[in-house]
Amino acid sequence: MRALEVRDLRCSRGPVTLFRDVSFAVAAGEWLAVRGANGSGKTTLLRCLAGLTQPDCGEVLWEGTVVARDPSAFHEALSYGGHLAGIKDDLTADENLAALVALRGRPVDAQSRRAALSRMGLEKRLHLPARRLSAGQRRRIGLARLAVEAAPLWALDEPLTALDDEGQRLFEHLLAEHLASGGIAVIATHQALAPEPARELRLGS
Question: Which helix (H) or strand (E) holds 60?
């Protein structure tokens, strides 16, 4: 069974310890809400999970295997979404989505990309340069990436940023489908989300 486990993770920024002794486990069909004040280490924790920041100590396990021993298998399973949308102004919505999924080494065909973007309400904006899209529409390209990648593990940093009510509902539907298929998610968010998280991790408390 799919499972993500974190054991005794600690991370510092210079002389400041952001968090210590962080341990949790998330099983298939569950998601963990990471909460805390600004500067409490939410983004850093997600970056540690994704292998973008090296923790001071502790380990991450995926499906019972320490990630450091087999990082390629873990990264194949992971969709990481940072606080910024990561969208390039000169590319269209479709070109941005193609570029994002190509980073995983598994390009998605044009029909699947168009279907995902249309589902996110961007069917009339597929070929507009991203500079002409609103912040919420740019964020929806990232939602389309989650839909087409179908990765079993999500690590997302404030995915609702700039989304309107409809955009939040679209994300909630994506999340519900992801969990129903046995997916796992770790989401840093200060907003309430449906379905309710299986558990909550509060940093800085």
Answer: strand 57-62
Instruction: Tell me how far apart the alpha carbons of residues 190 and 10 are, in angstroms, rounded to a whole number.
Output: 22
- How many domains are contained in the chain? 1
Range of the domain at 17: 3-202
pLDDT tens track for 98-155: 999 998 887 799 999 999 999 999 999 999 999 999 999 999 999 999 999 999 999 9
Task: Find the CATH number of the domain harbouring 15.
Answer: 3.40.50.300
Count of helix runs (H) and strand runs (E) in the chain: 6, 9
Q: What share of the chain is helix, strand, coil (3-state, %, to 5)?
A: 35, 25, 35
Whether the model clears a pTM of 0.90, i.e. scores above it, the answer is yes
191 conformational bin, left if phi > 0, alpha if psi -120 to 50, beta if neither:
beta
Among 149, 143, 126, 153, smallest CA distance to 46 is for 153
